[in-house]
Amino acid sequence: MMDSESLKQIVKEKYGKIAEQGGDEKSSCCSSSCCGPEVDYTVFSENYENKEGYNPDADLNLGCGIPTDYAGIKKGNHVLDLGSGAGNDCFVARAIVGESGKVTGLDMTEQMINKASENCENLKFENVEFVLGDIEEMPFHNNLFDVVISNCVLNLVPDKSKAFNEIFRVLKAGGHFCVSDVVIKGSLPEKLQKDAEMYAGCVSGASEIQEYLGIIKKSGFVNIKIHKQKVISIPDVLLAKYLNISEMESFHHNETGIFSITVSAEKSY
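Above: the chain's sequence. Below: its structure in token form.
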């Protein structure tokens, strides 16, 4: 099995290329840019166009939900966006926190930080910043943020326990998180789980849903709530790269499934 640092490097390379594309083509985490020209796999992303603060230059179609819809962000809050990409969710959050609040984006891909910073300069926002760093070891003090959000990123983190422990650490007492992410029910075929390209494409890095919720609880969070859940279909043309006909039929008819969920939880006082 590939080690944690190798997996992180694969993700950096994939998302670095997406950042450099600049949104000129469909660049979903499982789109043709990752999985081959014959696969159009953009079902993860949702439409932000009616959201205040939305900036098309910052939207690379990399999300699997809209966490700001359920995050309970208030004016004046300090919000942290994990895996902030080109800044899409940060700019939507900024519209909510207003001039008196602050939004910080954290991403481990330099190309994404550069693109987000460029977008921020163009928008002339002085209360939005983008920081290069690792979700498993965040470069922030304890008890710093009111709200943490993330959109289709934590599934790509090798050690999710470390990630949620870090979220707990950087949140203020009484703070909360709301993340959209990819999870699975049952277990994916081993061939899919081990394939590095699929890992960088959002699927094989996903945890089983009960395990995922268990990690959140074990990290110390309370009032865990799933706000939204959506089935994600994998096209047969993609499955056929890894499974034979019999395995594909089994995959379609058993209880295994891939879902995007939006979940929140609180750090108690």
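The beta strands are 78-82, 102-107, 128-132, 145-151, 171-185, 207-208, 222-232, 257-266.
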